[in-house]
Amino acid sequence: NKRRTEALKIARQDDEFKTEDNKRRAKAHKIERQDDEFKTEDNKRRTEALKIARQDDEFKTEDNKRRAKAHKIERQDDEFKTE
Q1: Number of Cβ within a 10 Å radius of residue 24
Q2: 82 pLDDT above the threshold of 90
Q3: pTM above 0.90?
Q4: How far apart, in whole angstroms, are the C-alpha atoms of residue 48 and residue 57?
Q5: What is the rounded CA–CA span in Å between residue 77 and residue 70?
């Protein structure tokens, strides 16, 4: 009977250990999921920032083309006036 009591005590301790281990694992998985979600959101923000930077570069390029064309027209106009 003593051995049975001891065996039950050990089995109970084993169950408690497994329960605590499962809680720790669940918490670790939750943290990993949150980390993955954060990384996903961070990647979305970076992608959006790069998209905006590309659009800004494209706008500046187009603006430079327009300015160059305007200067060319001004030079041609000045040349025409001097003739």
Answers
A1: 10
A2: no
A3: no
A4: 14
A5: 10
